[in-house]
Structure formats: C-alpha cells, structure tokens
Amino acid sequence: MRRVFKYLPLIILALVIPFAYWVNKTEPRPETIRDFAMDTYLEITIYHQPGEAVLEEILNDFKLLESIFNRYDENSVIYNVNKNAFEKPVSIPSIFENLLQESIKLSGYTEGYFNPAIGPLVDLWRPIIKGEEDSVLPDIDLIKKAISLSKTENIIINEPDGQVSFTILGVSLDFGAVVKGYAVDRAFGILRNRGVDRAVINAGGTIGVYGSPPGRNYWRIGIQHPRKDGIIGVLNLPSTTVVSTSGDYERYNIIGGKRYHHLLNPFTGYPAEELVSVTIINKNGLFSDAVSTAVFAMGLEKGMEFLTQKSLSAIIITSDLQIHFTGEAERLFQPEL
Amino acid sequence: MDSPTNKMVRICILTVLGVVLNLIEPPLPAPVPGIKLGLANLMSVIGLYSLGTYSAIWITILRTITVNLFLGFDLRGFLSLGGGVVSALIMEAVYYFYKRETGVVAVSMLGGLMHNFTQWLMVVILLQQPYLVVYLPFLLLSGVLAGVFIGTTGAYTLRRLGGFISGKDLQS
Amino acid sequence: MKRGDLLIYLFIIFMLLSSFLIYFFLNRIGGANQRIKSVVVEYKRQVFTEIPLPSEKRTVELKGSWGVLILNLDGYKIRVNPASPHYCPDKICMNQGWISEPPQTIVCLPNRIIIYYRGGAQIDGLTH
C-alpha cells in the first residue's frame, strides 16, 4: 500500500501527460497559400492540420467567383448578363442571384451610395483611371446618361425562374466593390464546415480574421497609410471580423493636378472627393465592402451621420489626413508612431 | 498517526486549499504588476516541509488537474502542469537529499525559478517560437521573487502551524 | 542561512545572469524580437527563390509570365527596378518603390509574381 502511494503521483502523471499532449496537438501551426484570383492578390492563412485541402477549397471558390463576376471576362456569367439581359431574361446561377439581391438590399440601406448597377459609369471612367493613352475626360452629357442607367430599379429579378433582365438598354452590373468581401464571407462558411478554428483571409486588401487569435488577445490588422508607404495604425480585433478599406490611392490617375480614382459617386458621376480612405469593421464582409464604398462616396459629414445613425464602426481619413472614428473603432485602433 | 491514510487525508486538505488559492488569485491585485505569485504553490511547499517527501508532487499534480477540470484543459493548463511538476520534483529532490543543509526560502526560490523556466521551455519547444527568449530574464526573475514570497510565508506558516498540519501536535 | 542554501542561491544567480546575457546578446545582433529572415519570391504558387536578409546590394532577375523583372536588394529593402527593360504591362510593381518590412509585399499580377518577407511579421494583415 505504502509503495503504491509513493508511486501513484508518477502513475497519474504517466496518464495525464499523453492526454495533455493530445490536447496540445490540437493547437495547429499556420499554413499559408498565396495566389491571384478576382483580379487581385490573395493570401490565406489557416491554423489547421492538414490544411492543404481547405486552402485549395477556398482558393477554388475564389476562382469560381471570378469566373462568375469578372465583368471583363467574355466567358463570365456577369458579362453574359450585361450583354443580353435587356433583350431577353438571362438565367443566372444561385450565387449570382444571391449576391445581386444582397447588393440591391445594401444599395437601399446605403441610400443608393453603394450601387451594384454602376457599370455604365465605371466603363466611362475606366480608360482615364487606367491611364490609357488618348483617353479624355468624359463628357457631361455622357455622364448624365450613365447616371440614369446606373439605377437598381432598372434590374428585374425573376426569382422563381432564376432569371434576370434589364428594363433599358445599356444597364450594366458591377460587383467589383463587394465581390472580395463576399468571397471572404464564403470562405468563412468553408472554414466553419471544415471545423477550422482560426484563419486570416486577405482578399486584395479586404481582410477577414476568423476565430480567436493564436496565443494572444488580438488579431492585428494594419491600415494602409493613404499617402505614403507603411501603415497609419493597427486595429486590434479579438475575434471573427472583416475589415474593408476603400481608398483613393489604389487605382487612380492624376490629370491636370487632379486625382481621378475608381471610387465613383453614383449621384454626381464623378470620383468622390473629400475623403481619402474609409475603413469599415464588421462581422460581414459583403456589408463591410458595400458600406466602405458607400461612405467614401458620401463624404465626411453625410458619412459620419450615416455611420453614427446605424451605429457602425468605421475609420474615416480626410484629405488633410485627419482621422475620424465612429462606433467601436477608436477603442480598437492603435496609431502607428 | 503516520499511516498512509492519515498522510493522504492531510495531502488532500492542502490540495483543496491550493485549489481555492488558485481560483481566487487571479482577481486579487498583484503586489508587483505583471508578476503572478502562484499562491497555490504555497501549499506544495508547506506540504513538503510538514508531511515529508512525495507530498509536494502529490499536491501539485492533484491541484493542477482539479483546477483544469474547473477551467478546461488547454495549453495553459498543460503549461502549468509541466511547470508545477518539474518545480515540485526539484524541490522534492533537494528536500530528500539535502534536507539538513537547505532552508524553506531557498528551496522555494529554486522551485519558483524552475517553474517559470520549465513553462518557458515548453512554450519555446511546443510553439516553436525561439524569439520568446526575450521574456526569459523577466520570467526567471519573477519566478524567484514569487519564490521568496512563498518561501517566507511558508516558513512563517510552518513555524506556527507546521505541527498542526502534520498532526504531530496531536501525538505529543 | 544554511550551507546548502548558498549553492541554491549561486545556481539562481547563474540562471538569472545567463538569461540576461542571452537577452543582451540577442538584442545586440539586431532586435531580439521576431526578425526578418529572408525574402521569398513565388511564381505560380511555387517558391522561385528565397534570399536571406539582410542582403548586400545586388540585383536578381525574375522571369514571370509576361516578362523579366529586375529585383533590387539592399539590406532589408527590396524593389522592382522601375527601369526594368522588359516592362510589365500595368507597371504597378515597378512604380511601387522600395518595401522595407513585413507585411509589405510586391505583387505583380501580369507576371504572377509575389514577393514577400519571411519572419518578422508584426501584424496579421494589411487593409488597403
């Protein structure tokens, strides 16, 4: 009895250590994949073993979205819709219908400042912003015409048949502003199905952090400084969040001292002025993307009012590099010194 | 009175006290910010010096497992088990071989040092993050300081209550 | 104090001193924090080359899907030479200038080339 008593602690240890080791085994090391899809750079890191199958699944989903929503690809669904939906209703896959309906809802939510039917305006400005040779600033009449085409009311969704049609010739859908956030949401769904505990999804600057951070209290997401290299600050995020930034520094061209960028105001038809960067912090990627685009177009006063009224978390940077916060953003933000 | 059952009961009582200390410590203000005292280790030291060999390792293992049952077994639990067991084993060994040449405070300081050193080593090996070496000096120092506190408190308790805890008071 | 205590104290002092020495030594050889280890160039999901950093001033030629990019290295700084003769069609990588620390990356879409730092990551991602 005495002998057993003496050695019992060691026996218990011998039982507990393999158990604890097994528990610890479930703390996986990160695996990262980097590639291109949806006309942008992707970086996916998951804390899951084995990770390759999940990474491939997410990447393939991104490529699927690209094959549906790339409006410059003649084989894509959206190209076909934009080309033919006025003449006859076009059948669309359920992903397309889903994103279209969510986008129209978000367009209403943002009072039209986010607009999935902004294609005609985008096409008008695209040569300028890309800096193509011989491109000239679009004529005001053309802009007015494009604004009238860029209305979500011109889209008719026939839900039972899964078809979409346009009421006027020239309507054109463009999900460029939200497809990355939508892709992040779908990636989160895959992570959930596969039982992944934590991951970071970077879809061309729209960043989703999933689950709790590994061995620390916060995920740390840097926010690009709008006018120089490096970051303006860091967001400390405790759990699943998507951060989306709209900035005028990404795709732009300077003509006659004026910056023409890709974030268009759907009401004036011109690139939105006043703000240089809007970052939205939300659980939902599609929402973050749509709202950051909308608030950028709204400008400071209207944007702040909108965000405060809807109690959303955002960081707005104006052209004089003043930083404005709404909601929880100030608490999460840590300026870079 | 020196039966295994008697010793086991006394070990269990100290274990339970350790569990309680373990659970109430986090909300209490730390004497020096950033340093975790590990008050529960007090019970291991007291056990070792009043009940003799094997009691510290017993108390440490039982306490850590019980606390982890409360809080959920995760990496942190694994770390505290490893640190606790290694430090208890070292204190046991020093007590077993050099009982007459060493005092409670020094042994407790050694225990504190080895506790934090083991935890650090486990993090470096398991998480493979060698840059964590920057924390080592601070961790070791805080382990030693905690050991000083545990040791002096333990010595004081033992002087007053050692006989009561071991049951030797009842024999005389 | 007992005789054996002295040995214990000596051991403790030894451990503390050596840990502080390691700490200061690591600090001297350039930041005991997570250090940048290397720069990795990936082409179509494959590691094309990995160069340890800091590097002396040198250039590396990278053959991508479109053309050849010339990479300039200097210490921890990296850029795509804007005067690369075989230009890349949208020139974003060439106009980006120097990058100096993670998580900055150089991404050349037409060439399918990604250039990033290994090690030293202080943040999980960069929103832009």
UniProtKB/TrEMBL annotation, chain A:
Record-annotated membrane-spanning stretches: 7-24
The organism of origin for this protein: Psychracetigena formicireducens
Enzyme class: transferase
Listed name of the protein: FAD:protein FMN transferase
Family to which this protein belongs: Belongs to the ApbE family.
Keywords: FAD, Flavoprotein, Magnesium, Membrane, Metal-binding, Transferase, Transmembrane, Transmembrane helix
Entry's EC annotation: 2.7.1.180
Pfam families: ApbE
Annotated cofactor note: Magnesium. Can also use manganese.
Cofactor(s) needed: Mg(2+); Mn(2+)
Matches recorded under InterPro entries: ApbE, ApbE-like_sf
Automatic annotation (TrEMBL), chain B:
Bilayer-crossing regions: 53-71, 78-98, 104-127, 134-158
Alphabetized UniProt keyword annotations: Membrane, Transmembrane, Transmembrane helix
Keyword Membrane: yes
One Pfam family this sequence matches: Hpre_diP_synt_I
Protein name: Heptaprenyl diphosphate synthase
UniProtKB/TrEMBL annotation, chain C:
Gene3D superfamilies: N-utilization substance G protein NusG, insert domain
Domain of life: Bacteria
Record-linked Pfam families: NusG_II
Protein name: NusG domain-containing protein
Transmembrane intervals: 6-26
Keywords for this protein: Membrane, Transmembrane, Transmembrane helix
InterPro entries, per the entry: NusG_2_sf (IPR038690)
Organism phylogeny: Bacteria, Bacillati, Candidatus Lithacetigenota, Candidatus Psychracetigena
